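TODO from last week: model Adenine deaminase.
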Amino acid sequence: MTVPVPKAELHLHIEGTLEPEAALACAARNGVELPFASADALRAAYSFTDLASFLDLYYALMAVLRTERDFTELADAYLARAAAQGVRHAEIFFDPQAHLARGVALATVLDGLGAALAAAPARHGITTRLIMCFLRDRPAAEALEVFEAARPWFGTLVTGVGLDSAEVGNPPAPFAEVFGRARDAGLRRVAHAGEEGPPAYVREVLDVLGAERVDHGIRSLEDPELVARLVRERVPLTVCPLSNVRLRCVPDLAAHPLPRMLDAGLLVTVNSDDPSYFGGYIEDNYAALGLDDETSRLLAANSFRAAFLPEDERAAHLRAVAAHRFG
Ligand SMILES: [Zn+2]
């Protein structure tokens, strides 16, 4: 078996790593009724037509996650799979509002995830960051509330904020205040933009939210001036090929814009987004694109260049990527 290239994963929603078997086990343990009799029936339900239909199932299945143990096991299962696919550093998103809305306390989510992340270096050889995402289809005032409630974990467990969920019709600007508070609190800032939404949203997350990375950003290609700026400012884009195809942002893998993005000189990375729903973890995304070895090496190096890592750790990872032997 070939050894996967060492890499960082920078666009990964922990709730999107809930595998059907784990969801059913969790449901049984917590006495949560799910309208699916088997893992196969659940897998069959994963046939989305767009972002909105995916999000409907995604939020429905979250109902099984109730206890600290559920969140610890969820994150630990992801880290085990990620390690097997060459991940050495993972910057993990979570959606606190999706859990608060169903009566699960922030401490349950954070302490549960925190236990798995604390064990990750020794257990899986992976360093981590945790990025708290706000739901852009919920009011900005709610994001401010959850931001303030999470302050006790800032700097120790939560080191960044993000913006996710349904993009079309939900521009980034209303979240300027919460992103400003995040900057003042010393947190890193990322935001989804240009997945289904227009290139204007990519400009907005940079100019209004102060985002340091753009999640997806594939529609930037429609705007040559924006591409020139992203290249000039070395803004990383966290691209998720299998997600783009499953959510019909791109018709098929052959039409995926990643090669054009690389040709344009963009700082592109490849990631898995919601891997249990989209048919593959990070190495599966690398493999799906049919890349040659040196392009895989470039993408792996980009993942560490774009990561929120101290410079000595970044340099060590880049040396490992340069020394990697494909074969
Ligand atoms: Zn995402």
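Done. The mean pLDDT is 95.
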